[in-house]
């Protein structure tokens, strides 16, 4: 009988995602793809979105620091409405354009 590697549970995957998001420093952002890759699978970008949507602890899991691959903010940020993500980032010193984008050349966090 062959041994099969058990697929990680949703909770385990979400926990890995949350662990990565906790590492993003104040004043920086990361993309969904970066978080997915750092959590173990670069194809989990959409899963990162699902995990952040059900974030159990926004005070320590700063999901407002996650943006899309173009630096665009979420149009319907789950914690506080559509402008909450921009306001939280601005409070950390991150500039957000009028059309809801962050300059990734300036604010992207590089995982080490």
Describe the fold and architecture:
It contains 5 helices and 2 strands; from the N terminus they run H-E-H-H-E-H-H. The protein has helices spanning 10-23, 32-39, 45-53, 84-91, 104-107, and strands at 30-31, 66-67. The N and C termini lie far apart (40 Å). The protein has 112 residues and is mainly alpha-helical. The radius of gyration is 15 Å and the shape is globular. The chain has a single domain, classed as Winged helix-like DNA-binding domain superfamily/Winged helix DNA-binding domain (Arc Repressor Mutant, subunit A, Orthogonal Bundle). A two-stranded parallel ribbon has the order 1-2. Helix content is 38%, strand content 4%.
Mean pLDDT: 89
Main sheet record: 2 strands, parallel
Strand-residue proportion? under 5%
Number of domains: 1
Computed Rg? 15 Å
Low-confidence stretches: 1-8
Shape: globular
Classified in CATH, the superfamily is Winged helix-like DNA-binding domain superfamily/Winged helix DNA-binding domain
Structural class: mainly alpha
Give the assembly state of these chains.
single chain
Distance between termini?
40 Å
Strand order of the largest sheet: 1-2
Number of helices: 5
Order of SSEs: HEHHEHH
What is the CATH fold-level name? Arc Repressor Mutant, subunit A
Helix content: 25-40%
- Any idea what the CATH architecture is? Orthogonal Bundle
Tell me how many strands there are.
2
* CATH C-level: Mainly Alpha
């Amino acid at each position: 009988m062959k041994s099969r590697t058990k697929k990680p549970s949703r909770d385990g995957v979400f926990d890995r995602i949350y662990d990565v998001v906790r590492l993003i420093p104040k004043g920086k952002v990361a993309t969904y793809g970066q978080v997915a890759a750092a959590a173990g699978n670069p194809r989990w970008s959409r899963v990162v979105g699902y995990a952040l949507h059900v974030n159990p602890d926004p005070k320590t899991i700063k999901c407002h620091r996650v943006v899309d691959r173009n630096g665009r903010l979420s149009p319907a940020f789950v914690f506080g409405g559509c402008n909450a993500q921009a306001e939280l980032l601005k409070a950390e010193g991150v500039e957000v354009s009028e059309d809801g984008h962050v300059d990734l050349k300036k604010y992207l966090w590089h995982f080490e």
